[in-house]
Design goal:
mainly alpha; single chain
Length: about 130
Amino acid sequence: MAKNTYKTPPKAPIVKKKRENRLLTYLNQTIGFDRLFGEDNAWPIKHFDRIMWVSFLLILYIGFNHNAERLVRNIQRLKAQVDEKRAKYTTLQADFMKSGKQSEISKQVIATGLTEPVTPPYKIVVKSDETQP
């Protein structure tokens, strides 16, 4: 038997062709990035998608910062309102407690003609044998 001495040539490595970015192609056609940056300085063109992604993240970060500052301002405003309402509640509660005292009630009733009794009330004592018929 004859030995097969035929060797197959090694396979060439498969190189994936990088897909062209449609947005980059469109911008290059309309604005002409090649004319702006030239062939020697093509770094911004090659990394346009990354530049746009970082720009988007920066805009998002700025938006979140504005939202957080607005929330902090609202919280401070609401705290001031709560403190004001708490002070008003305390004042009204103190006035209400004061108005329930006998001396305050007697001052208000004098206008209607009622006066406080000068003599103490009589105590009625009932004997236990009188309660049953």
